[in-house]
């Protein structure tokens, strides 16, 4: 069976009598030579794309910088409250930053 | 010998030396002539930028390995595409039925995974010994014998 199989394969070899035409031969060689010339261009394009992406990302980051925190009052405000005999309530709020 | 990227003139020399054999090898691996031409072209495009062995015989083996790997990549993509078509219920039938013995042999070869097909082609059609095929494909001789045995069984089953 092995011999039969091998003989069948050889008899109907898909490559039997075939060769590249002159047109295809030249075209394939030119493509390969062209590929040799262009890798620099491809690298350049990749670097340019990476630079643009980094630039856009940097802009996006800086534009979304978190807002400055609101002023936090650290000193505790003090109040003086008292009521008049007539019932009026008086509230004094002391400015903690006031200095004489 | 040192591996060097094929220089421009070296590339033409490499091409002149190996394109005939590589095209015949690709025809035996591919589904049709167009695919074989694509495989040859892609192999030489790779040779244009990759380190190719300086020794002519080693360079030939390197190109055969590249074509085998490219054929395997294409075969895998085709398998995925066919599986997707099957899942979507859009399975297409082969428009070229096996009308004659040559078509039957071709479809039998096509039923083999690319590496088994490469091993069968190199051994039975190109007359390469097992040791040389093992060196070319970068695997052990035991693996090559296993591929030969599996491929023969499969071909016999398909051709019966």
Overview of the molecule:
The complex is a heterodimer of chains A (100) and B (160). Chain A is α+β, with helices and mostly antiparallel strands and 100 residues long. Helices cover 51% and strands 12% of the residues of chain A. Chain A contains three helices and two strands. Chain A has a two-stranded antiparallel ribbon with strand order 1-2. Chain A is rod-shaped. Chain B has 160 residues and is mainly α. In chain B, strands 1-2 form a two-stranded antiparallel ribbon. Chain B starts with a strand and ends with a helix. Chains A and B meet through helix 1 and helix 2 of A and helix 1, helix 2, helix 4, helix 5 and helix 7 of B.
In short:
The complex is a heterodimer of chains A (100) and B (160). Chain A is of the alpha+beta class and 100 residues long.
The H/E string of chain B reads EHHEHHHHH
Radius of gyration of chain B: 17 Å
| Biggest β-sheet: strands ordered side by side in the sheet of chain B | 1-2
Annotation field: number of helices of chain B: 7
The major sheet of chain B is characterized as: 2 strands, antiparallel
The low-confidence parts of chain A are none
> What topology, given as strand order, has the largest sheet of chain A?
1-2
Describe the structure using short key phrases.
heterodimer; A: 100 residues; alpha+beta; two-stranded antiparallel sheet; 2 strands; 12% strand; rod-shaped; B: 160 residues; mainly alpha; 7 helices; 75% helix; globular
């Amino acid at each position: 069976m092995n011999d039969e199989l091998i003989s069948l394969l050889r008899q109907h070899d898909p490559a039997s009598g075939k060769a590249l035409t002159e047109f295809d031969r030249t075209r394939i060689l030119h493509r390969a030579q062209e590929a040799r010339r262009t890798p620099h261009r491809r690298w350049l394009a990749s670097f340019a794309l990476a630079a643009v992406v980094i630039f856009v990302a940097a802009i996006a980051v800086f534009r979304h910088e978190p807002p400055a925190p609101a002023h936090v009052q650290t000193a505790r405000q003090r109040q003086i409250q008292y009521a008049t005999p007539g019932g009026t309530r008086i509230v004094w709020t002391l400015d903690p930053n006031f200095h004489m | 010998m040192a591996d060097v990227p094929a220089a421009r003139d070296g590339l033409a020399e490499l091409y002149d030396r190996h394109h005939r054999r590589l095209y015949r090898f690709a025809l035996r691996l591919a589904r049709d002539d167009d695919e074989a031409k694509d495989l040859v072209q892609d192999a030489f495009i790779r040779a244009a930028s990759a380190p190719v062995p300086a020794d002519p015989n080693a360079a030939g083996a390197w190109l055969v390995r590249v074509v085998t790997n490219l054929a395997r990549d294409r075969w895998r993509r085709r398998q995925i595409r066919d599986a997707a078509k099957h899942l979507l219920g859009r399975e297409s039938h082969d428009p070229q039925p096996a009308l004659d013995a040559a078509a039957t042999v071709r479809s039998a070869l096509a039923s083999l995974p690319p590496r088994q097909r490469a091993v069968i082609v190199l051994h039975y059609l190109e007359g390469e010994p097992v040791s040389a095929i093992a060196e070319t494909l970068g695997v052990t001789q035991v693996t090559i014998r296993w591929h030969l045995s599996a491929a023969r069984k499969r071909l016999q089953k398909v051709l019966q």
